[in-house]
What we know:
By secondary structure, the chain is an alpha/beta fold. The chain is built from 15 helices and 15 strands.
Amino acid sequence: MFRPEWSRTLARKMTRNLRTKRVYLSPPHLDGRERKLLLQAFDSNWITTLGPHVDAFEKEMCEKVGVKNAAALVSGTAALHLALLMLGVRAGDEVLCSDLTFAATANVITYLGATPVFIDSNQSTWNMDPELLSKELDACTHRGKLPKAVIVVDIYGQCADYDPITEVCEKYQIPIIEDAAEALGATYKKTYAGKLGVMGVFSFNGNKIITTSGGGMLVSDNEEYINRARFLSTQARDPAPHYQHSHIGYNYRLSNLLAAVGRGQLEWLEKKVARRRAINEFYRKALGMLPGIKFMPESPYGKSNCWLTVILINPGEFGAGREKVRVALEQENIESRPMWKPMHMQPVFRGYRVCGGEVSEDLFEHGLCLPSGTQMTQEDLNRIVNIVKSCCRAFEGGAL
Ligand SMILES: Cc1ncc(COP(=O)(O)O)c(C=O)c1O
């Protein structure tokens, strides 16, 4: 049944939305140098996948992360795919991977006809639980089939707990691929994210801490892996004057134009991390005292880049659930997002093996990613905080 006041409310909201600035979750933030470098690349006519900016971007990433070799690619997904190829993953193999992640981490396993097995997070890091990993590797041994690799994700910019994960993987001689797509600039015991497995993967997708519009990088101390990844990423051409191919290749190399943008972005990495951390700190101070609100814990072993600030909302204590808060923000033209839906809950991965699963399910049900873009103003932040507070029962009752 239609009620006229509905259309009036809607009209009021729409007018307000036209007036209020849209705040996005994590939009790109260009600092200025990108344009200069991009035009330089353009004017030099090096606009394809070969060029000085690609080489320089790889070198500068190596310096930032502390790794020896890097291959600039079209996406983080491409980097993950090549990483699995380097380790010889093929049809029929199993690959263990973090359950709480973006789908790309698990999708690439299936590109090779292999099977993902999902390992739940623990409460203290929200990253892969080393104990569950250990149990699963024991079980794999008993079944007589060890996985070919483990993909460990550094979720929302915080490194997983690599010491126990590495110890158990070394025991079974299983290589680790570090999916650091979200974690550029984060550290684990003073080692930079990306350097904690045999290979590391970064994404420069538009919502990441630095962006090339779309792009990714595979890094490793192992030169052979990176040389081979470069070879496969440029259609695996044999060294011949004509087009000859002895291997299946891919069109995965980053263009010189986009590498130029990446270089401009990378110059400000530390500033961007500091800003994201300051935003996180602001949210903690402004919302941390509300009943039923918890923040993603920052583990003492490292420093998160705070790519996204994530809160957990306990509806009983707070007086509203995650979805109600998300809709309240959306009505005021502010984008927020539920946390990643765990892989074992995804229709496409129904029936795949999962170890645990309760932690990631609970995080998904209650977790909300707040806008964390480095360009946000204090006014934007105050708006967000006030809307979240207005959803809280104690706030409505005047108790705060
Ligand atoms: C954890 C994780 N892995 C992989 C990817 C894939 O990266 P890309 O979008 O660059 O392919 C992303 C993000 O997009 C991600 O968040």
